[in-house]
């Protein structure tokens, strides 16, 4: 995703000779602080950690064990085999009348020790079980007897009714891969995109790295992996995630109400209901394939979180609670309380507050309208402006940064229109991803955007969590506000207004004159960035997940191979491809990169462009490419990927002032195709088959390279795939609409390799019209292939 463009923005001074470095005080201090941050996170949620610490037992299980011991003692049985008598001897002698109290205390201490030992045994057993990844490596749809036994044991040791953070203490830590294996996989991944001369040069750098520096850097990583919760995630967050954003869209075909304030009221109420369930750990932990728990640490910072700018680096500020939201409308900022003395405001009361803001005729103060552009400006500029704000502006800033989240009430409509569906979807995606440059507070964990026609969207800051987490929240929000809260016949929220509520508080900034120039510069830069993004969204409806499953293939691998074919037709060459996958099988795991442009994928693409190759030949190569992609995906998920390990080695080299040409080469790579699948149906609050139109159309992100593409895709139900493509208008090499056409053609061509896909391709070409067909032969002819129309660069 956009993270691919960011890797490490800091570069400490480098020494010319690194071979003599042995121990580094700054490096050891950084490892110590990483571990300290991990322990602070655990201590900050003591009660939750207590509940999860005793899972799969419960506090009531201690009472049951204590009662059983007391009953046995009453029946003159000693389950402790004499240990309780020895405990009684160690307790103070309070006299004869307290003899029974000493017995009760001894039984309680013995019960606590036995209970703790049992829990520790369960934790160790569950952690060992969760460290097994053999189930990932098995063929799709097959399960060996060993895996069945493993799954049964996991279910036994997992207990009943787990809470959101119940598995955290049992998750294994992310392993540090072998540096030799990582370098070997890296060289294998770049071979298809490098010339023979460039590859030989890179391989020589790699051999020098393994000989001179690798063992020292690896030693520090091993040390950190033993001390901190995760050897790479905190660095990835600090140096990469604090600069990335993505967006999520509303229902594609449905708008539950055209009343802007009503949609905002229900959406805000639903989001705060999600926060309430989150605080009470009532959200079930995510189980991969229904059996393997994933890390839930990222859920902690969804709400009440802001990215604070710094001169050298940003940091995350998270509050335990917030009882208001910050609202932006027509250049003005408001503080809207979300709770009364009786609890969370009803959706109708929130609608009333938002309608008051919409009806407020007061104008924006000078430069207030464009103030939020500073959150898109260079971070050092924004940090300096913050320090120059006066008291009143500081109070207004605190109201925004201390809000549960940010709400933007836009004055323009958005969403799919019948008159021009393609252009309207593209404009909708662009409005969510970039806005106008000054109408989003990009530092908040997420901004809820409500358009004038009732359409919704989400702009998400990327540092606090990855897309599956925000997607989980967004699915809950859309399902709750539409199916549980609902709307009245006239489009308003259900219930009654509350006239006793105070008016929303208008925030006043009183900006000093010296920062007006900074705001103007930030606005100019934000508009330039926003205007340079080319977004294209299109739903591919010729087939979807159900067809791919009938082909007995992975849906994700199918799309990735089609993207390789589409990119080659677009650019006439192969490129490094970044696909984001998760490492949440491990404690505090975030993401890893799947390098989808493999030698097998390139062989398949070349065969598809060779008219001499028959369909069976292409299909055989396609299956090999899919199998290779699946192997890379599973390796990345199980902590054996390439990029996070190389990234962490690079960070260590920077702390050690150790120059490595090989790591510099890796760090300078350009990802001209960044891809990601948006997860869907993580929550089953309604039957998607009964309501096929009520599925989010996913979201997108910006390109990772100035001359590259950002492509995300989401499987909407069984028969539709929605693609979000982004590129930069300033590039003469890219065109989002052109790539979209290539993706559509590539999907139809790949589907035609299968017998059922021949019919789908014929129907697809017929719908597109003969003027768009690039096949010179009839669609039923075996071996026909669409030639590339790209220019070589």
From TrEMBL:
Molecular functions (GO terms): carnitine O-palmitoyltransferase activity; palmitoyl-(protein) hydrolase activity
Known EC number: 3.1.2.22
Ranges annotated as biased composition (Basic and acidic residues): 765-777
Gene3D superfamilies per record: 6.10.250.1760, Chloramphenicol acetyltransferase-like domain, Choline/Carnitine o-acyltransferase, domain 2
GO BP annotations, alphabetical order: carnitine metabolic process; fatty acid beta-oxidation
Subcellular location: Cell projection, Axon; Cell projection, Dendrite; Endoplasmic reticulum membrane
Residues the record marks as active site: 462
A cellular-component GO term for this protein: axon
Transmembrane region(s): 50-75, 104-130
Any Pfam family: Carn_acyltransf
Superkingdom field: Eukaryota
Catalytically driven reaction(s): S-hexadecanoyl-L-cysteinyl-[protein] + H2O = L-cysteinyl-[protein] + hexadecanoate + H(+)
Domain Choline/carnitine acyltransferase: 175-744
Top EC group: hydrolase
Summary of the function given for this chain in its UniProt record: Palmitoyl thioesterase specifically expressed in the endoplasmic reticulum of neurons. Modulates the trafficking of the glutamate receptor, AMPAR, to plasma membrane through depalmitoylation of GRIA1. Also regulates AMPR trafficking through the regulation of SACM1L phosphatidylinositol-3-phosphatase activity by interaction in a malonyl-CoA dependent manner. Binds malonyl-CoA and couples malonyl-CoA to ceramide levels, necessary for proper spine maturation and contributing to systemic energy homeostasis and appetite control.
PANTHER family registered for this protein in UniProt: CARNITINE O-ACYLTRANSFERASE (PTHR22589), CARNITINE O-PALMITOYLTRANSFERASE 1, BRAIN ISOFORM (PTHR22589:SF55)
Family recorded in the similarity comment: Belongs to the carnitine/choline acetyltransferase family.
Protein name: Palmitoyl thioesterase CPT1C
Species whose genome carries this gene: Balaenoptera musculus (Blue whale)
């Amino acid at each position: 995703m956009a993270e691919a463009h960011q890797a490490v923005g800091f570069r400490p001074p480098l020494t010319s000779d690194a071979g003599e470095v042995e121990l580094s005080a700054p490096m050891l201090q950084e490892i110590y602080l990483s571990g300290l941050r991990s322990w602070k996170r655990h201590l900050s949620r003591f009660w939750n950690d207590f509940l999860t610490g005793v899972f799969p037992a419960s506090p009531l299980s201690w009472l049951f064990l204590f009662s059983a011991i007391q009953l046995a003692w009453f029946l003159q049985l000693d389950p402790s085999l004499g240990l309780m008598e020895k405990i009684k001897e160690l307790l103070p002698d309070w006299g004869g009348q307290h003899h029974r109290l000493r017995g009760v205390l001894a039984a309680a201490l013995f019960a606590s020790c036995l209970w703790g030992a049992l829990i520790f045994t369960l934790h160790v057993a569950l952690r060992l079980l969760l460290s097994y990844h053999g189930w990932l490596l098995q063929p799709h749809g097959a399960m060996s007897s060993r895996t069945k036994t493993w799954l049964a044991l996991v279910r036994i040791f997992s207990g009943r009714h787990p809470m959101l953070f119940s598995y955290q203490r049992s998750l294994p830590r992310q392993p540090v891969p072998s540096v030799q294996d990582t370098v070997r996989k890296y060289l294998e991944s770049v071979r298809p995109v490098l010339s023979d001369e460039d590859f030989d040069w890179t391989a020589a750098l790699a051999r020098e790295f393994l000989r001179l520096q690798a063992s020292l850097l690896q030693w520090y990583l091993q040390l950190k992996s033993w001390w901190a919760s995760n050897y790479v995630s905190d660095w990835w967050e600090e140096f990469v995630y604090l600069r990335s954003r993505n967006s999520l869209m509303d229902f594609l075909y449905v708008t539950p109400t055209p009343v802007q304030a009503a949609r905002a009221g229900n959406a805000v109420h639903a989001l705060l209901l999600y926060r309430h369930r989150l605080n009470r750990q009532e959200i079930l932990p995510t189980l991969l394939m229904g059996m393997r728990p994933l890390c839930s640490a990222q859920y902690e910072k969804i709400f009440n979180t802001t990215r604070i700018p710094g001169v050298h680096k940003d940091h995350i500020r998270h509050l335990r609670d917030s009882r208001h939201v910050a609202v932006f409308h027509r250049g003005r900022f408001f503080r809207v309380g979300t709770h009364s003395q009786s609890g969370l405001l009803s959706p109708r009361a929130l609608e009333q507050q938002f309608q008051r803001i919409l009806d407020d005729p007061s104008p924006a103060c000078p430069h207030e309208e464009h103030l939020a552009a500073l959150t898109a400006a260079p971070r050092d500029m924004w940090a300096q402006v913050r320090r120059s704000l006066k008291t009143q502006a500081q109070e207004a800033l605190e109201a925004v940064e201390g809000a549960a989240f940010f709400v933007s009430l836009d004055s323009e409509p958005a969403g799919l229109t019948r008159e021009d569906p393609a252009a309207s979807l593209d404009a909708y995606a662009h409005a969510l991803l970039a806005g106008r440059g000054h109408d989003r507070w990009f530092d908040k964990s997420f901004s809820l955007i409500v358009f004038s026609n009732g359409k919704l969207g989400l702009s998400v800051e990327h540092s606090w969590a990855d897309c599956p987490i925000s997607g989980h929240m967004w699915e809950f929000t859309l399902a709750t506000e539409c199916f549980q809260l609902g709307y009245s016949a006239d489009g308003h929220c259900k219930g009654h207004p509350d006239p006793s509520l105070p008016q929303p508080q208008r925030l006043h900034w009183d900006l000093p004159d010296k920062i007006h120039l900074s705001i103007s510069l930030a606005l100019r830069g934000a508009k330039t960035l926003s205007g340079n993004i080319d977004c294209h969204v299109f739903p591919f409806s010729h087939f979807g997940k159900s067809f791919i499953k009938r082909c007995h293939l992975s849906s994700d691998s199918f799309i990735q191979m089609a993207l390789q074919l589409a990119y080659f037709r677009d650019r006439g060459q192969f490129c490094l491809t970044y696909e984001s996958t998760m490492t949440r099988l491990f404690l505090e795991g975030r993401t890893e990169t799947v390098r989808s442009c493999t030698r097998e994928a390139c062989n398949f693409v070349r065969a598809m462009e060779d008219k001499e190759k028959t369909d069976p030949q292409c299909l055989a190569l396609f299956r090999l490419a899919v199998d290779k992609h699946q192997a890379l995906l599973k390796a990345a998920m199980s902590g054996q990927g390439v990029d996070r390990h190389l990234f962490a080695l690079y960070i260590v080299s920077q702390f050690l002032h150790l120059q490595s040409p090989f790591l510099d080469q890796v760090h300078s790579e350009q990802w001209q195709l960044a891809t990601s699948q948006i997860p869907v149906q993580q929550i089953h609050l309604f039957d998607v088959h009964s309501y096929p139109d009520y599925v989010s159309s996913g979201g997108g992100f910006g390109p990772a390279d100035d001359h590259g593409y950002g492509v995300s895709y989401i499987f909407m139900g069984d028969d539709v795939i929605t693609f979000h493509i982004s590129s930069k208008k300033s590039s003469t090499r890219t065109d989002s609409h052109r790539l979209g056409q290539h993706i559509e053609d590539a999907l139809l061509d790949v589907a035609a390799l299968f017998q059922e896909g021949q019919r789908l391709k014929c129907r697809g070409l017929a719908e597109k019209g003969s003027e768009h067909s690039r096949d010179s032969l009839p669609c039923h002819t075996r071996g026909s292939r669409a030639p590339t129309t790209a220019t070589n660069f």
